[in-house]
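Thread: glutamic acid complex, take 2
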Amino acid sequence: MDLNQKPRGRFAPSPSGRMHLGNAWTALLAWLDIRKLGGTMVLRMEDLDPDRCRPQFAEGLVEDLQWLGLDWDEGPDRPGVAASYKQSERSDLYQAAFDSLGQRGLVYPCFCSRAELRSVASAPHAGEAEPVYSGRCAGLSMTEQAEKLSVRRQAAYRLRVGEAEISFTDQLFGPQRQKLNQSCGDFVIRRSDGVYAYQLAVVVDDAMMQIDRVLRGADLLASTPRQIYLWQLLGYPPPTFIHAPLLLAADGSRLSKRQGSLTIEALRGSGVRPEQIIGQLAVWAGLIEQPEPLRPDELIDVFSLDKLPREPVVVGDTLTNLI
Ligand code: GLU
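Output below.
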């Protein structure tokens, strides 16, 4: 890594729905982290999964981020070091990484049924069961693989994890250690329909986009060792990881865009001002004590990772009450 390079961070939303308060929270924190350091902010559309992502959601995300007062230096609308900034246009790069891992004997086809596998193009979020793969297809001979491929034609492809044990220090959650064969087993890097898995794509993208600070939701903390393993195999130094505690609804469930409530669009439609949302997020982030209308750039001076909560933040009905 070039020591003179300015830090590079990113916000990498999946356009599978409208932007949610939880996405706004991580977007704001990632933006503040990079702006505080005078670095470069990248917006990457993680529209890898054609089954779930829609162009209108990507447009909505851009609109919502801009409305909130967040900007970026590189993105789909302003190419920088590593265009394209849409995963749907980067398959060649994922293919090259996939081939290089395959040439080293690290990848094998898996014929286990859909019921045994979950969809892997999207990021696994906390609370969603993550089965450890049994290794059923790991030992198939070349002949058995060829026979099965001639009948089934399609296979998912898994990366062998062997005895890999990954340690890293998260800037908020502290030291982490995972033995991959106990946490997930050999994991899918390409789905049986040919779509590359999130775990592979996110590493290829962050590496090519020279990202050295990844601030994202704590639901992805458990995926990080898998990603570091890929960073190592592909020969790049992993970035600094900062996982932000999640915002939770009053019932303890994750504020997810899939719930439909509390989208930025809905709040905006009810007359809530972007400054009110930013002010409330700043209270939850420990940056100010009482909610007051603020723009993101007014928080740069007071931002510090040390102030962020270490536990999930239960947001209850705070913003709904503003409507
Ligand atoms: N696209 C992922 C999501 O929306 C985030 C991936 C990441 O930040 O690594 O959950």
